[in-house]
């Protein structure tokens, strides 16, 4: 069954959460947190989004983010999580 499409309202804050597969850790050390935040900053700038709050836990994260456009949220999240997964897998796999 396909997932339900995300409803995006530009200029309104969205609470986003994502966790590791089978609740596995996605942040092992402080460098992982810093790299994730660097990617988030880059993609927020690229998509003209705004981050109001974030919380990075060992196996998941929360973001309160306001996209500037209809596709801004998806582009931002894809950019961050795709590049972070590449980083994480090359470091720990």
Largest sheet at a glance?
3 strands, antiparallel
Rg over C-alpha atoms, rounded to the nearest angstrom: 13 Å
* Chain-averaged pLDDT: 96
Overall tally of domains: 1
| Largest sheet: spatial strand order | 1-3-2
What is the rounded distance between the termini? 29 Å
Helix-residue proportion: 40-55%
Gross geometry: globular
User: What is the string of SSEs from the N terminus onward?
Assistant: EHEEH
TL;DR of this structure?
42% of the residues lie in helices and 22% in strands. It is of the alpha+beta class. It has one domain (14-92): Alpha-Beta Plaits.
Question: What characteristics describe this protein?
Answer:
2 helices, three-stranded antiparallel β-sheet, single chain, Alpha-Beta Plaits, alpha+beta, 93 residues
Descriptive report:
The protein is of the alpha+beta class and 93 residues long. The protein has one domain (14-92): Alpha-Beta Plaits (2-Layer Sandwich). The chain is built from 2 helices and 3 strands, in the order βαββα. A 3-stranded antiparallel sheet has the order 1-3-2, covered by helices on one side. The relative contact order is 0.24. The model has no long low-confidence stretch (mean pLDDT 96).
């Amino acid at each position: 069954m396909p997932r339900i499409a995300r409803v995006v309202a530009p200029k309104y804050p969205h609470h986003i959460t994502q966790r590791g597969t089978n609740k596995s850790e996605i942040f092992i050390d402080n460098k992982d947190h810093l790299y994730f935040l660097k990617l988030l900053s880059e993609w927020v700038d690229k998509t003209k989004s705004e981050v109001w709050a974030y919380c990075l836990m060992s196996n998941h994260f929360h973001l309160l983010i306001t996209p500037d456009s209809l596709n801004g949220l998806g582009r931002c999240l894809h950019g961050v999580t795709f590049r972070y997964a590449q980083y994480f897998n090359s470091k720990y796999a």
